[in-house]
Specification:
single chain; two-stranded antiparallel sheet; 55% helix; mainly alpha
């Protein structure tokens, strides 16, 4: 799974997109909740940083109670509540680079079987989210930005550990 992720990146996912392009790419795979979409976009950014030392998109993620959240993406879909966001059709992907569509599929292969709630639990167990939250209780509101350096180092370590096995 991670080897395929690296191969995808080496084949040229280098154009800069924004979090909305990444969201469209994930939504072209299946309809999903805002929570799941947020976590998948977060993992795309984090793994890209870890594997390439480059930023997939400039948009930040904050360490909210329910895990990493990009505020602007949240606002776009907050009216959906807990309902799934409609699937994006192929004609809506014209402005999304093919590399990002491919990369979203690779990230989805790793995390797509998990629900938004399961992804929330997973991110809560990982250093980047925990470090950004600091000493806050799990129910306390936070707008702290998750460090890109923490993302890069944490997921590089995950990769190193998986390669060592």
């Amino acid at each position: 799974m991670l080897i395929h992720l690296i191969t995808c990146l080496k084949e040229g996912a280098s154009d800069m997109a924004d979090v909305f392009d990444m969201a469209k790419a994930f939504l072209s795979i299946e309809p999903m909740t805002n929570k799941k979409l947020q976590k998948l976009c977060y993992y795309a950014k984090a793994w890209y940083l870890a594997l390439t030392d480059e930023n997939l998109f400039d948009d930040d993620f904050q360490a909210w109670v329910h895990g990493p959240v990009n505020y602007d993406l949240y606002l776009k879909y907050k009216d959906r509540g807990f309902n799934k966001i409609s699937q994006v059709h192929e004609d809506e992907l014209e402005d999304v680079p093919e590399e990002f569509i491919d990369f979203s599929k690779t990230v989805y292969e790793a995390y797509g079987d998990l629900t938004g709630g399961e992804l929330e639990i997973l991110t809560h167990s990982e250093d980047p989210w925990m470090n950004a939250r600091g000493n806050k209780k799990h129910w306390e509101r936070s707008e702290a930005v998750i460090s890109e350096e923490d993302m890069k180092l944490f997921y590089r370590n995950v990769l190193s550990e998986s390669e060592a096995q």
